[in-house]
Every structure is written in structure tokens, then in C-alpha cells.
Specification:
The protein is mainly α. 47% of the residues lie in helices and 11% in strands.
């Protein structure tokens, strides 16, 4: 399984909005600059996230985007499924169950099922808030788009 640029950028956009909103809408132009993502590409991804109900658009001079919920409401799996579709490592597991006609005789299916379960265990149990907390623990501080790693 390989996560596309769109999926990786969607996570970065959601994290940036979560960390920089302070109760106010976050401008995609600012997110674009902080994250070094093309504004046009970011708007396409933002439209997907808005249609999924993850972001809310606020119009006007002070407009931008806010999370609809709080960072703990969004698992990584939820966000990646919006941009990537199905995340199973093999097509026969794509619909959530083993739909391969050869599964009864397939020696590799236990491997793919374990890998599928491991992937889902991680992405469906980690939230945006978890990533923010990990960043704090690692003492990675984002200020005005500049990452600084504190020295101990």
C-alpha cells in the first residue's frame, strides 16, 4: 500500500488547520505557505475534506476553514479514505471481507489479512490529536510555518 501525495497533503492540511485555528478560520493561502503545497492543489483537497464534513468553509475577508469537530474526532483512517478510497493492501480484501474466489486455496491470504488488520489497527486508532500530542512530546514546535526542534 502506498499513500498518495493527496492523502499525505490531506493529513497535513487537517493538522495545520487544527493547530492554527485558535477559534478563527484558517486561510488556505497561509496553510499553503506553511505546508509548501500548491494553493490550487490544496483547494482541490480541501473540497474533498469539506464534502466529507471534516472542514467548514467560512466566507468573507476574515474567512477560511475550521475543523467541524475537534482533532480527536478525526482518525487518520477517516481522512485517508476520503482521499485514497480503499486502503487494503490487496484487491481481494478491498470490500472489507475476503472476496477472492481462490481464497480457500490461497496460501498467502493469512498474510494479507494480518497486514490488512495491522494497517487498520494503526490508522483507525490514531487521531489528529494523537499526532499533535506526539509532536509536543517530541518537542517539535510549529511557529509561523517554521519547525523548530527544541534542544535538551
Amino acid at each position: 500500500m502506498k499513500i498518495s501525495t493527496r492523502g499525505r497533503y490531506a493529513l497535513r492540511i487537517m493538522l495545520d488547520v487544527a493547530m492554527n485555528s485558535n477559534g478563527k478560520p484558517v486561510s488556505f493561502k497561509e496553510v499553503s505557505q506553511r505546508q509548501n503545497i500548491s494553493l490550487k492543489y490544496m483547494e482541490q483537497i480541501g473540497a474533498l475534506l469539506t464534502r466529507a464534513g471534516f472542514l467548514r468553509s467560512v466566507r468573507g475577508a476574515q474567512g477560511g476553514y475550521n475543523l467541524v469537530g475537534v482533532p480527536a474526532d478525526y482518525t487518520i483512517g477517516m481522512i485517508l479514505r476520503v482521499t485514497e478510497g480503499q486502503l487494503s493492501p490487496v484487491p481481494c480484501l478491498a470490500d472489507g471481507k475476503n472476496s477472492c474466489p481462490n481464497s480457500a486455496d490461497c496460501l498467502t491470504i493469512p498474510l494479507w489479512e494480518k497486514l490488512n488488520d495491522a494497517i487498520f489497527d494503526v490508522i483507525d486508532n490514531m487521531t489528529l490529536q494523537d499526532l499533535i500530542d506526539i509532536g509536543k512530546e517530541r518537542r517539535i514546535i510549529v511557529i509561523d510555518g517554521t519547525e523548530e526542534k527544541s534542544e535538551d
